[in-house]
Amino acid sequence: MSVTRIVVVDDQEVVRAAFAALLATQPDFAVVGAAADGAQAVRVCREQRPDVVLMDVRMPVVDGIEATRRVLADGGDTRVVILTTFDLDEHVYDALEAGASGFLLKDVTAERLFDAVRVVAAGDALLAPAVTRRLVAEFARLRVRRPSPPTSLSTLTPRETEVLRLIAEGLSNPEIAARLVVGEETVKTHVSRVLGKLGLRDRTQAVVLAYESGLIVPGGPAF
């Protein structure tokens, strides 16, 4: 059995202990470290090279946004899931921009937590379309963004651009396949090429870019 190595980061000891205890009940999880602030998180991640980091946003010394940026800048396959109290939190959006693979509310159920860690560890993004898409769209609307799509979008074919739009709507690969009337393997190929051409880690970053670039307009047809 493949074991997912996890680091839990939160400035509240009781929260760290609770998440660690829950995760330890799963035979395919191993909590290999914990940290009370972002600076400690970076050090622990450099030592342990975890697969997944559960990262609080609001912490002393170094906050979760900067810590996420530093952890991902070190390279490797570590993925970060943001822990937050509120689903519409501007700091969560900043963390997604910094490269986080998604977010979870701190009152998440145990089963949802386990599923989320497995999804992210497998290399997918924890989009939670109904919530994350709304969050990204809201803060893209409130912020001043680039007036036109970045040059990198011009490297996409018309079909790849269409796939990016559908990713930004929160559609899964089977749903995109049904919308475009193509096979799911074809969609997987398109998604892989989109991420590769744009230099993105996962679908969450694709959603952020789609809104920031103006490819998707908050309040537009996708909603």
From TrEMBL:
Presence of the UniProt keyword DNA-binding in the record: yes
Pfam families hit by this protein: GerE, Response_reg
Every Response regulatory domain range: 5-121
InterPro entries found in the cross-reference section: CheY-like_superfamily, NreC/VraR/RcsB-like_REC, Sig_transdc_resp-reg_receiver, Tscrpt_reg_LuxR_C, WalR-like
SUPFAM superfamilies documented for this protein: CheY-like (SSF52172)
Domain HTH luxR-type: 149-214
PROSITE patterns assigned to the protein according to its UniProt record, in alphabetical order: HTH_LUXR_1, HTH_LUXR_2, RESPONSE_REGULATORY
Keyword field: DNA-binding, Phosphoprotein, Transcription, Transcription regulation
4-aspartylphosphate PTM positions: 56
Protein name, per record: Response regulator
